[in-house]
Input
Amino acid sequence: MKMKKLLAATLSIVTVSSMILAGCGKTEETTQATDTATDTAAETETGETTTEEVNGDLPTITFTHGYYHDESEWAAAGEMRAIYNEFAELHKDEFNFVVQADETGAEGIYNTALNDLSSGEFYDIADFGGWDIVPVASASDAILDLKPYLDEDAAFKEGAGVCYDQNLVDGKIYSVREQIEAVGFWYNAALFEKAGADTPDQWSTWADFDAAVDKLVAADIMPFGLNAGWPTNILTAGYSQRSSDARAFYETGRSVTDFDDATFKDTLNFMQTNVLQKIDTANFGPGGDDDEQYRTDFFDGNTAMLFNGVWDAGGAVDCAAGIDNIKPANFPTDEAGKRAALLSGGTGFVVSNKLDEAQTAACIEFIKYMTSPEIAARIIEKGIGMAPSTAVDYDALLSKVSAPEAKLLVEACQLCQKADYQALGLGNTFGDAEGEIQGKYAGLMDGSKTADDVVKELNDFLAASE
Amino acid sequence: MKQHKKFLTRKNGFICAFLAPGILLFFIIYAYPLINIFVTSFCKWNYKNFQAPEFLGWSHMFDNYIKIFTSDANFKMALINTMKWVVLTLVIQVPFTLIVALILSKKPRGWKITRNVFIIPNIISTAAIGLIFLNIYNPSRGIVTEIMNQIRPGSNISILANEKYAFWGVTFAFIFFGGSLCILLLTQIFSIDQSLFEAAKVDGANAWHIDTKIVLPLMRPMIGTVAVMAVNYALLLYNEIALITGGGPDNATFSLSYYIYRTALGSTKLNFARGNTAGVIQFILGIVLVGLINKAFRTNEAD
Output
């Protein structure tokens, strides 16, 4: 009897405790909600549209983006939020444009979209910041084809720039971006001069690159720092634009079924003998997000070239190499005088196809606004990055900006835009195979792999991933 | 007799009442996903049919298993690496931790500080450990590179960018960090009845005899538990790989967990089915290894 009482008492205590704990949890949730509301209220002071301001008579669209950072942390984030809020303010009498910053960034937006898709939902409109949600979202019939809207408006198409062709898959365009990854490279003119080598702006073909590298090495100057990832991928992609045959294979990109191509093998041979085996092991890192030694070495004045995008104009500020010595360049080709650059649109704004007509029109209006020449110029001028719009007047921008790093950025963007051949970056071209290709650099560098070995291994990967 | 039976029934009811919430939670949190993983390993489930996995059909139901074992070099690499790490934890981490625990149990001067220092790597995040090791192995200024250059001038070995060394680079980033396991072993040693040691000393036993004839045999179940924990860590190794090498170079440091992530979520193809297939294999491996270790150390038997 005593045992029964004890058991009953214990179970009662456990039940009551569980309910109390559950209640505590609820209280915490409410607290969080209150905190969020406070944050939103604070943001309202800076012009962020909030649900409290929503006019119930107008269509409402929620736009989610990853520019959550404090301005002191990343000034570009503040500028982007200002751009969004100006649009919301401009159209407040037509529709409610609710701007939401996701503090998990673009990757978090992508992951949330994956979760939402599994239950048949999707954001109204979101900026995926390069995270490729399109294959899964389009296969789930969740997103809007933007091509008809681009085709009916020449200015819109001009604003989309390279995104139009690059994001055209099976006759549909599911995403347009207001910024693109524009990549050439940077060089230290003082080190080239010291080595007596021609600077990249004087190069006519890749043979000039080889000659310059040899002179730098002879002068005991490290030509570049690389790693088993990003900077080496840039050079691989840049060299792949050298001839029409090489470009043709490169363009097969994600649909590639066989890496056994003469031009691709030539690219691998070039990377092995003319690039990777020209540098010390100390200048070849393992790759990965935190491996940025190649940048540090360049801005410290220890290496002559840096393979990175236009955005690294900011890295030249107060660097030991001296901002006056840092210059942007695009890639030579094997066609004398012709130049190449990497311009990757990737995935940016993606719109749900479940919105009504008014909501859809509002989303299209927003993307048009974001790709307009005015916003494109502002994105470049403020040092945020490069815009895809082909309508940007770079000469006018050059005379408008005064800060040395801003001038460098505009010059770099102009070089990329002027390049005779503009191609996608390696990742946007080869998809998952990019990771496999970059995995082979270490073996090419130490000579444990040949181009043929790499081709065989890449084909094995393709077969396994089918 | 009747009363004893009644008591046992009551006792069992009491135990069941306390176990019920735990079992219920287990089924909701663990069993459902486990069944889901198992079932979807026989399906086609990637970005093309994201919302609805499709059964491969009875004649093709093992296709995912056949594919990963026959043509997926990354899976094979991940499986081999994981098994190597399992073996290495058993032959390096567990014995090393046991030796440290035995030494500390003698309470030499500074043993408390040593014990606390030994546990530090286990209480700081693996993210921090990853960054520390990235710097240690840095090819231009890392301490390991410097030491290697002193031993072999001009060798300039980039540990993490070299297929031959990267595996060991990751291994040394976790294999000696047995602080938590050491605390368990120490607790067990300290719980041994002191009269046994005194009796042994009276009989003329030295420290070696005491450790090998009394301490180790009495610690056998705890050593088994520690071995299970260490093997489990090696089997599920993920953070170190993601932070230090990203599975490279040339996928030489893939682990099963990292393979699952890369296949299911780290790829635009979102191949959940194949990721789950690897998950089933990892689960089976875990069960088998735990069973073998429990059998070897007879952890369920009372002395």
Notes: Residues 220 and 297 of chain B are 6 Å apart (CA to CA). Chain B has one domain: 41-297. The two ends of chain B are 29 Å apart (CA to CA).
